[in-house]
């Protein structure tokens, strides 16, 4: 088809040549086109893409891909937030950065690079934390796309966008598209705040990795990682107690590696390597460029579909909202519906049930909030219906309440009582109903 048949906006056909193919998607009807949702092929969806204001959170591995994809899909008004600066180790996959950029803020360098390559696209960087911005800031956007590696930041933006929803104002509903990768695995999901399952509803999908019990490390290791952890946790403490372990010091890693290797040989375990030692000790999950590319592509596809209604997006109420990619076993994706939870502390209104041993202490309970997959709170503060049970800050409240930590729960609470848990990292109040086992 001649380029002239493609509708043009803001200039000549030549200028739109770059978007010839996406313009074709938007200027013709199709089998999957969402006509019920008001899709009218032609100028309108093209203008929708150009005028949509998109916020990208994260300008790292996923963020570079997302910014590039959005700009090349025809989005022209993009903002990006990232608090990090570029490290030399980012350069193998964060392709918007060069050696000369090391030490510079990721958001600024990424924005400038994409703007130079895609004229007409404006990317406004903000170097800082998402928590620096208020509700009015987030209200200006139509879609939020996250490419983050922090669960805490995801939970914060999720709670903020749920809070933003005003039933009287449909524009206050900001679709949230979240991408995440870990090695060969990744996910992309779409959330319509308050309407569909939110990140907090899905928190147990991201359970903290189970720690290996110390006894396994000390007695019978089964995996190469156990031998490394043994060298790391037990042997270092025994033999080099006076030296602080520096995970960036090759001599320290070599020492651990040799200890781990000897132990592995003793138990006939193969697979201990220097780089595995480094990975286990630094708790690094390898970042894989292709996984980032796949997940970012899926996220940007959803953004494009939401902005144009040219095809049904995932995430509509009652439909699939979560795409899981597992590249370590095969090239495999699975899309399913994660349901909204009535006892979600962010988008639900019921307290979660919490079964506790009545003779265990408040201290045990406080500690358990860090490990519970559905809470993952590192500094929980607890209040019962009548009183403060425990506060880790401010110091005065801590002094008043820390005596409770050693008390058994049945002395402080009654069966069926509701407690409110807060954490300085989140604005959410986590409500629990305590049941004695
Ligand atoms: Zn929720």
Tell me about this structure.
The model is unreliable at 1-9 (pLDDT under 50). This protein is α/β, with parallel strands linked by helices and 437 residues long. It folds into three domains: 18-207 and 288-336, NAD(P)-binding Rossmann-like Domain (Rossmann fold, 3-Layer(aba) Sandwich); 214-282, Ubiquitin activating enzymes (Uba3). Chain: B, domain 2 (Arc Repressor Mutant, subunit A, Orthogonal Bundle), CATH 1.10.10; 352-436, Ubiquitin-like 2 activating enzyme e1b. Chain:  B, domain 3 (Structural Genomics Hypothetical 15.5 Kd Protein In mrcA-pckA Intergenic Region, Chain A). Helix 3 crosses helix 11, helix 8 packs across helix 9 and helix 8 (224-239) packs across helix 10 (274-282). The protein contains 14 helices and 13 strands. It is 34% helix and 16% strand. The N and C termini lie far apart (71 Å). Helix 3 links the parallel strand 1 (53-57) and strand 2 (77-82). An eight-stranded mixed beta sheet has the order 3-2-1-4-5-6-7-8, sandwiched between helices. Residues 198, 200-201, 341, 344, 346-348 line the site of zinc ion. One of its GO terms (cellular component) is cytoplasm. Pfam families: E2_bind, ThiF. Residues 354-437 form the E2 binding domain. Keywords: ATP-binding, Ligase, Nucleotide-binding, Ubl conjugation pathway. Its EC number is 6.2.1.64.
């Amino acid at each position: 088809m001649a380029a002239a048949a493609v509708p043009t906006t803001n200039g000549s056909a030549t200028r739109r040549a770059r978007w010839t193919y996406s313009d074709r998607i938007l200027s013709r009807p199709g089998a999957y086109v969402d006509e019920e949702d008001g899709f009218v092929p032609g100028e309108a969806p093209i203008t929708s893409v150009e005028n949509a204001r998109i916020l990208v959170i994260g300008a790292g591995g996923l963020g570079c891909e997302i910014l590039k994809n959005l700009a090349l899909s025809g989005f022209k008004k993009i903002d990006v937030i990232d608090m990090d600066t570029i490290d030399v180790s980012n350069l193998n996959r964060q392709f918007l950065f060069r050696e000369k950029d090391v030490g510079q803020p990721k958001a600024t360098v990424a924005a400038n690079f994409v703007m130079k390559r895609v004229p007409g696209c404006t990317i406004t960087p903000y170097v800082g934390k998402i928590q620096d911005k208020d509700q009015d800031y987030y209200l200006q956007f139509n879609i939020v796309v996250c490419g983050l590696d922090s669960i805490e930041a995801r939970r914060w933006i999720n709670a903020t966008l749920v809070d933003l929803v005003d039933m009287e104002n449909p524009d206050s509903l900001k679709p949230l598209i979240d991408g995440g990768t870990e090695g060969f695995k990744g996910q992309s999901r779409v959330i319509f705040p308050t309407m569909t399952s939110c990140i907090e509803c899905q928190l147990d999908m991201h359970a903290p990795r189970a720690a290996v019990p110390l006894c396994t490390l000390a007695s019978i290791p089964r995996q190469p990682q156990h031998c490394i952890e043994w060298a790391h946790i037990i042997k270092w403490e025994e033999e080099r107690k006076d030296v602080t372990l520096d995970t960036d010091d090759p001599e320290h890693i070599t020492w651990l590696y040799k200890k781990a290797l000897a132990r592995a040989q003793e138990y006939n375990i193969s697979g201990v390597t220097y780089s595995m030692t480094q990975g286990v000790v630094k708790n690094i999950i390898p970042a894989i460029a292709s996984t980032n590319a796949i997940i970012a592509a899926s996220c940007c596809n959803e953004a494009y579909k939401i902005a144009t209604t040219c095809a049904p997006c995932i995430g509509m109420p009652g439909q699939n909202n979560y795409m899981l990619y597992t590249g370590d076993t095969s090239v495999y994706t699975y899309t399913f519906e994660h349901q909204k939870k009535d006892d979600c502390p962010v988008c639900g209104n019921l307290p979660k049930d919490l079964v506790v041993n009545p003779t265990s202490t408040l201290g045990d309970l406080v500690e358990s909030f860090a490990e519970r997959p559905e809470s993952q709170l590192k500094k929980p503060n607890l209040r019962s219906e009548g009183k403060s049970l425990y506060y880790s800050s401010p110091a005065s409240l801590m002094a008043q309440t820390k005596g409770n930590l050693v008390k058994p729960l049945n002395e402080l609470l009654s069966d069926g009582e509701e407690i409110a848990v807060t954490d300085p990292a989140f604005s959410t109040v986590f409500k629990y109903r305590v049941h004695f086992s």
